[in-house]
Amino acid sequence: MWMLWxxxxxxxxxxxxxxxxxxxxxxxxxxxxxxxxxxxxxxxxGIGNRKCAMNGDFFLFCDRSASPPQPKFEDVVVLNxxxxxxxxxxxxxxxxxxxxxxxxxxxxxxxxxxxxxxxFRLSGTRNKLTAFGCDTIAFMTDAMGDFGSxxxxxxxxxxxxxxxxxxxxxxxxxxxxxxxxxRKILNKTKTLTEEFITCDYAVLADESFDLSGLHFSDxxxxxxxxxxxxxDEESCGDNTNLTYxxxxxxxxxxxxxxxxxxxxxxxxxxxxxxxxxxCEGTCKNTPGSYxxxxxxxxxGDGTVGCRGxxxxxxxxxxxxxxxxxxxxxxxxxxxxxFIKRRRKIKRKQKFFKRNGGLLLRQELSSNEGNIxxxxxxxxxxxxxxxxxxxxxxxxxxxxQGTVFKGMLTDGRIVAVxxxxxxxxxxxxxxxxx
Length: 433
Hints:
Blueprint: E1 4-9, E2 35-36, E3 39-40, E4 61-63, E5 70-73, E6 76-82, E7 87-93, E8 95-99, E9 105-114, E10 120-122, E11 127-132, E12 136-141, E13 147-153, H1 164-169, E14 177-181, E15 188-193, E16 198-206, E17 221-228, E18 240-244, E19 251-255, E20 259-262, E21 266-269, E22 282-286, E23 289-293, E24 298-301, E25 305-308, H2 311-354, H3 357-366, H4 379-385, E26 394-397, E27 401-407, E28 413-419, H5 427-432
Parallel strand pairs: 1-12
Antiparallel strand pairs: 2-3, 4-5, 5-6, 6-7, 7-17, 8-9, 8-16, 9-15, 10-17, 11-14, 11-16, 12-13, 18-19, 20-21, 22-23, 24-25, 26-27, 27-28
């Protein structure tokens, strides 16, 4: 049984400068292009003009012959640049080596990516080395030859490599496929791998890269994560902090709390009051932060939660109570008016009956042809006609009452008899008079 060695030789390197943080409104220097095809190229990187980059290490070539255009460095295609975590997603080819049944090499492809001259390193936390094949060992060393990472992929004798796709779709358990994380952050890689009748592959890829979609051929490729950093501590913009890179080989720039933007160009204040930050009271923006004062009548931290009752709630409660009281008073007033009116009607009916109203109505009905002689008047009409029963209007007195001279509104003169204290038994006699 023969054994194929797939080697990835990765050398250490001197780091130089760059930064990172959340994207802001300004991502590039004035007059510089921001995008190459679909890829945003934020400062400290630059395209088109070398002055658009922090230095030559961060200058990328925009290949406009591709469709869409692609940013590149050292023939490596850049798919994404993150200011936030200081990383690049790049596309590199896979390595392959293929043998015939006699163990003779039919095809061999060596892939070499050299990042020594740039402040970039392959991420040791986000990339994984994956080997596909039978009786295959894949390993990585640094420039000094020290072992970094490796794994072995084994198969049974005469195992058909046509099952490769099924192996990829399942987990790499060591049978036809093995996978291991990188233990060092490296900047120079040499990869060997193969296919055809009996082919083995070595793939360095970001842990999020979907290997099930990888179609092995001499043109297959994978995505890797490359970390970048800066050496110059004065490269950060305003309102930023300098932090050590995770790989310990340089620095990164990040915006201070309460600020946002590109930290290599300068961060600007976040207006928390207009960006939905929590506040239950009156919000006031301050440099790098904001203040939130609880409403009148409440206390506590407005950014977390206020306790008590808002003055508006108290006022609203008072308004509601006053409104209900007003409606209650209106209702009682209308009830009083209704009851008073009912009592007045009943009293009028009572007096009408007691004072011989029924007899008068009967008299009216029996004298329909002579209505003018027996017309009914209200007490107010009679008071007005007699000048409030003025003594100067007295014409005479009878047994049951006093007769007054009255003048109606139409000028007619009438005699008005006002009763004295009359007993109910004498009502009919009073009417007859």
